[in-house]
Amino acid sequence: MEKALLLYSSTEGQTLKILRYIENELLGRYECEFRDLRDFPKVNFKDYDKVLIGASIRYGRFNQTVYEFIEQNLFELKLSKGAFFCVNLTARKKGKDTPEGSVYMKKFQNQSQWKPQLLGVFAGALYYPRYCFYDRIMIQLIMKITGGETDRTKEVEYTNWESVRVFSDRFSCI
Ligand SMILES: Cc1cc2nc3c(=O)[nH]c(=O)nc-3n(C[C@H](O)[C@H](O)[C@H](O)COP(=O)(O)O)c2cc1C
Questions:
Q1: I need a labelling partner for 157 at 20 to 30 A (CA). Which of 22, 79, 119, 148 fits?
Q2: Can you give the pLDDT at residue 41?
Q3: In what order do the strands lie in the sheet with 30-36?
Q4: 2-124+159-173 — its CATH code?
Q5: Whose C-alpha lies nearest to ligand 1, atom 21?
């Protein structure tokens, strides 16, 4: 069986949940191994047939460990079959859930020297009760401006699991 390495940067766990879904979709075709980018993993790329990185957006940016990992492993990443997806709340809106329509993905593509064969953009989740006071107020403000959920007692998952499924299929074909 082929082996896939699934790397992630996830704060509330939605990106990891998406990767677990992808793992399940790949069941029987790929053996998947997970690594948290916050642990600064040392990767032996020769052990894997494919690499997938999933990362969420916070205040307009990926976690610093995402940029660092890509920079430090650029040579190996360029030689590997690879895919990258981004998770954010802007992608709950139609047209913002594609690599072409996502400002975050466009910025990533402009800045990064790694050009993965496959890119994805998925809507994440809104977990007001789990945020610290400052984040809760900030997210509520952003939601108010962008016409989203402003009830601070609510938890809403916007992830479109069908598009994650399609992405999983495409990942298995790169
Ligand atoms: C503090 C904070 C800041 C965020 N900033 C943004 C942002 O700038 N743009 C956006 O589209 N989504 C933003 N989000 C939404 C997250 O990307 C979304 O909740 C995602 O599901 C988080 O995934 P994770 O649990 O894997 O980290 C933010 C969420 C939080 C809690």
A1: 119
A2: 95
A3: 30-36, 2-9, 50-56, 81-88, 118-123
A4: 3.40.50.360
A5: 124
